[in-house]
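During the reporting period the student researcher (J.K.) took over the structure-prediction task from the postdoctoral fellow and processed the backlog of single-chain submissions. One of the processed entries is reproduced below for the supervisory committee.
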Amino acid sequence: MISTIVTAQKKHFPSFFNASMEDLHWVDSVWNSLDDDEKIAQLFIVPHYTSNSYAEVEGLVKKYNVGGVIFFKGRAETQINAINNLNKVAKTPLVYTLDAEWGLGMRLPKDGISYPYAMTLGAIEDDQLIFEMGVQMAEQLKRVGVGVSYGPVVDLNNNPLNPVINYRSFGENKEKVAAKAIQYMYGLQSQNVLAVGKHFPGHGDTSVDSHKDLPVIPHDVARLDSMELYPYKKLIEAGVGGVMTAHLSVPVWDDQPSSLSPKIVTEILRDSLAFNGLVFTDGILMNAITKRFQKYGVADAKALVAGNDVVEFTNHIGDAIDAVKDEIEKGNLSWEEIDQKGWRMLLMKKWTGAHQVTSISTARLKEDLHPLKATHLIQNIADEAVTLLQYEGGLPLKTNSGKIAVVNIGTREYSELTTTLERQGLEVTSFYLSKNASISTVNALIKKLKNYDTVISQLSGFYMTQGAKDIAVELEKGKASPALKYPYKITYTQVKYIEMANLLPQHFTVVLGNAYVLRSFQGIEKQNGIIVTYQNSKALRNAVAKMMIGKIQPKGTLPVTIDTRYKEGTSYKSFENPNIKAVEREHISTLSIPKINKTDV
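J.K. obtained the following structure tokens:
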């Protein structure tokens, strides 16, 4: 039998297992009050998409007594009102869940705060900031009634072509990903919000989106055990309460999707990794699963047979209950196993406080969801994350730096850098270039810029994901062309501008977006400096400006490998010596950074 190298060990119990006799009595009394169908229904999380979904969700709660709800995009007040109303009709307390990897802003963008993406967090040194972020996120989640957050993502994004994990991952270094995920988890669970590590056994090295089809993980057991499973081992040992199983094909272990595989869910996650918390499926209605089953409910039942405790994102509850009973009759699933799953679910609900059914107030909601401490934390993270990826000297900029040009390519709205430089008394001129400008316009601008001592070009207008299937333009063996379709909504104009900017005497490029966009800019390594922010936000643009004038030192470290030019773990940590490059594998201090010739960089 094929198995992991991991040996079975003592079970790891999350904190919601630290139950009092009162807790156990509550769980026992609630569970014994349910009939067989209701016990099965407790294992399902149903979706609430928008305010128009409320009637359907209420119907499922009343008819079947489902276990919980996952909310999607909407307004905070609408969500609170829905929770208050559902609590009035639910026989058994519901748990409310949210996919909030970077905070409430991910699902409630008009009302909630968006904290930095995981790739941005992957660049910082001070992981205590991630713990603080987790605490704040949990406080805001609880304010809108949420007790389970589907995060952190602990996948290793070691495939630049990954269309769905990508910037949602902390990076590709397994030790760093594990350390950051643990702090994220600690932050959430310190406030009794359940953290759910995902997507087991590892969705990072894929080039297919499981929302659309079934990705394949082609690696052997040794590779999977040493890489993909590593962050899960550490997170489980640290006490994570939940793990989400992915819809993946892992041929070395099984020929069916990982979320439906007893081999992967029970033998590997439960037994080998000794996880005893709640196992959630990824959305069971994703195409990776629905394409393989003609009848609703069958996959739900198979997920429970495989060892999952909770089937997430399902609404064909009657069909699912019937399918589960069929599996029990066939001997593939027992009522004892249903009891174990249900007890875990109820223990978790008690731990999150779901049993304390009180009306959530909407008063002062805006103030509560936008605390001042969040603004400070987001800026602190931004200051740590901004990465000086390439450097030949010329920073910080001072009053004797001569004439400076700031070129915004993609939008004219970003004034943080220009304003900061002007406040320092520097001579600055701003230019704007449309990302779809003609090449003659680009040529004319480059001609003007040759009259400046320093040019800083801010590239923006990118998508955070590739944005199109099977697109990954690397111009190592060819030239830019208007006929090429570029990933991340990069334009031919942007590519040609960077190519022509190599003619400028001193040029810095600021990439306000996903670091992987650098794959399409061949020749950019010939410039004086490259600064990467990993995403575009006001806090990160402020951090760029502060670094340019020396108010903060460069601290960020590249968390992923871009290509042969820019490897994971590299950055410059010093303005004084442009030949010093930090390779931060184990948080090496700047005092121990080896000297490297520029030709080797």
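The committee noted the following: The chain has a mean pLDDT of 92.
J.K. will present the remaining backlog at the next meeting.
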